[in-house]
Design a protein that fits this description.
- The chain has about 325 residues and is of the alpha/beta class.
- The chain is globular and about 55 Å long.
- The chain starts with a strand and ends in a 9-residue tail after the last helix.
Length: about 325
């Protein structure tokens, strides 16, 4: 039996807590960022703001006390918005021990530093960090429908421990040692999902969507490989698997934001109506371009998404500019 602390009580953190509780055999603590949310979870047994419709089993301990949440935990699972991760890790870094397994299930690239989430954690704590990523919607994991995910770590013993402790009849966990590739796939697919939503919002049809997704994985792969990831990883669950899910599924927040952009709504109006939920691609787009510039990698779709998000470019003009780019070989 492991003691597992889930740090972040949004939809994904709550879904993972439910999955672990359904599996059984662990002590699970769910940390909420605010006392109001923790009280609501404890009182109602349901995450009304982020994941309504699912009852938390009594065996899941809920707290807003961060040091108490991690006390004597064997596994720390970070499931916080990417731009809040550094602050949370810094708060608890002095309390961590070398034998605790640290896992990031947050997807994004930090603004300014352009670090992946495991790099942020390692830079603050000095501890090695694994990543958990793959094609999973929180609502479906919470419901217990079959899903597959990847646990990646440079130390195979770490990824195998995560595989053992998180696997269940409804969640199949694969291992990988390509932390960079797995993490880049999870972060960058959100940017392409915004573009996929724009295509849908403009009513451009299935041909456009298929082209967008395929060329999206091409530029994700280019940057991931430049950063040290493996091309093979981006052809797997955390790459094309997560991309297809996020670009086509109606539960995708990033795709939903893109749809509204394609319909002509302003970004601030869209985000203000999300009830505090996060579309990571909105912040990750500029960071992805900063990282691409560092490595000299071309990312035309990401550039157009950034122009729509942050420079008031009309979505139809962005599509036109993508289609009028000079011809090239598919694999260059």
């Amino acid at each position: 039996m492991s003691r597992i602390a889930i740090l972040g009580a949004g939809a994904w953190g709550t879904a993972l807590a439910l999955s672990l509780a359904r599996r059984g055999g662990h002590d699970v603590t769910l940390w909420a960022h605010s006392s109001a949310l923790a009280a609501q979870l404890a009182e109602n047994g349901e995450n009304l703001p982020y994941l309504p419709g699912f009852t938390l089993p009594a065996g899941i301990a809920v707290t807003d006390d961060l040091p108490a949440a991690i006390f004597e935990a064997d596994i720390l699972l970070f499931v916080t918005p990417s731009q809040h991760l550094r602050g949370i890790v810094s708060h608890i870094a002095p309390l961590l021990t070398r034998d605790q397994i640290i896992v990031s299930a947050s997807k994004g690239i930090e603004e300014g530093s352009f670090l992946r989430m495991t790099q942020v954690i390692a830079s603050v704590t000095g501890n090695p960090c694994a990543v958990l990523s793959g094609p999973t919607f929180a609502q479906e994991v919470a419901a217990g429908t079959p899903a597959a995910i990847v646990a990646a770590a440079s130390d195979p013993r770490m990824s195998q421990t995560i595989q053992r402790d998180f696997s269940s009849p409804s969640l199949r966990v694969y291992t990988n040692d390509d932390v960079t590739g797995v993490e880049m796939g999870g972060a960058l697919k959100n940017v392409i999902a915004l573009a996929s939503g724009v295509v849908t919002g403009l009513n451009l049809g299935h041909n456009s969507a298929a082209a967008l997704i395929t060329r999206g994985i091409a530029e994700i792969t280019r940057l991931a490989v430049a950063c040290g990831g493996r091309r093979q990883t981006l052809a797997g669950l955390s790459g094309i698997g997560d991309l297809v899910l996020t670009c086509t599924g109606n539960l995708s927040r990033n795709r939903s934001v893109g749809i509204e952009l394609g319909r002509g709504r302003k970004l601030d109006d869209i985000l203000s109506g999300m009830g505090g939920k996060v579309a990571e691609g909105v912040r990750s787009t500029a960071s992805a371009l900063g990282l691409a510039a560092r490595y000299g990698v071309e990312m035309p779709i990401t550039e157009q998404v950034d122009a729509i998000l942050h420079h008031n470019k009309k979505p139809a003009d962005a599509i036109r500019d993508l289609m009028s780019r000079p011809g090239r070989d598919e694999y260059q």
